[in-house]
Amino acid sequence: MFKGSIVAIVTPFTNGQVDFEKLRELVEFQITNGTDAIVPCGTTGEASTLDYDEHMAVVKTVIEQVNKRVPVIAGTGSNSTQEAIELSQKAKEAGANGVLLVTPYYNKPTQEGLVRHYTAIADAVAIPQILYNVPGRTGVNMLPETVARLAPNKNIVAIKEATGSLQQASEVLALCGDKIDVLCGDDFITFPMMACGAKGVISVLANIMPKTVADLTDAFYAGDMATARRLHLETLKIGNAMFIESNPIPVKTALGLMGKCSDEVRLPLCEMGAGNKAKLAAIMKEYQLI
Asked: pLDDT tens for residues 220-268?
């Protein structure tokens, strides 16, 4: 259902407030450069420090600006099942094409708790839903066997697999077959994950290099493995640079250096250290981004 290059778009701030004008400009930058779908209010969009009204305003602004040109997949995950249901319902009402649901963070649910959490959301809101497994941020790993239990639910259409493990992604693909799509959640393994059967990537790197990420996934689907492999290897260095500090600090710093938006993040995140900023700027110059 969702495939190709899907950007986990940043939420731009100016003087502590959401900069909706810059958000609209970033959406246009993505669509102009071939991005296949847009995810507002994910990890990269700093959803955890947006209040409820801001969260929905960002989702609605992206939906309005996109104007049905590409799918919009709203981040609506929460460590509260009821809150995730409410956000997902509001996103559906706003016109989102799907929702992205991170595993509950901090609570550390059991695998049975994860099944019940996602089943409750899927049963309550009839919209395509993407599971989001990122144990490095949440403290819980959704095991392949758990994904297989959820895959038959008609509203659960995909998983963003962001463990960084090709083995785990492969196990999900092997267990679930065509019952659920797998999307790569780590730019540095997009090509190998697609070779295993993933349908595309929910990308951080696409914020600053949307055409390159789109070209990689397009080449793969066109059967041009040589081009896809070349782009995979060429983008490793800049992709890794997006994680020299906690996401989205590096990608927002990069966007600031490119003049696309402010590099502001919200506490408890803070601006990038001077040394890392210099390293990032040097790498961006190598890629002719600045």
From this structure: 999 999 999 999 999 999 999 999 999 999 999 999 999 999 999 999 9
- 105 is known as an active-site residue: no
- CA 212 vs CA 25, 67, 73, 251: distances in Å: 19, 24, 21, 15
Catalytic residue chosen out of the listed positions 90, 92, 160, 199: 160
Q: Which of 231, 239, 237 is nearest to 215 (CA)?
A: 231
Task: List residues bridging with 102 in a β-sheet.
Answer: 132
> What is the C-alpha separation between 60 and 5, in angstroms, rounded?
21
Strand partners of residue 73: 98
Q: Give the model confidence (pLDDT) of 4-55 as tens digits.
A: 999 999 999 999 999 999 999 999 999 999 999 999 999 999 999 999 999 9
Q: Do 5 and 36 meet the contact criterion of CB atoms below 8 Å apart? A: yes
**Active-site annotation holder among 3, 22, 132, 252:** 132
The structure tokens listed for 34 are 């071939």
Does the annotation count 199 as an active-site position? no
Q: Which residue has the tokens 């040097």?
A: 282
Q: What is the domain class of 4-223 according to CATH?
A: alpha beta
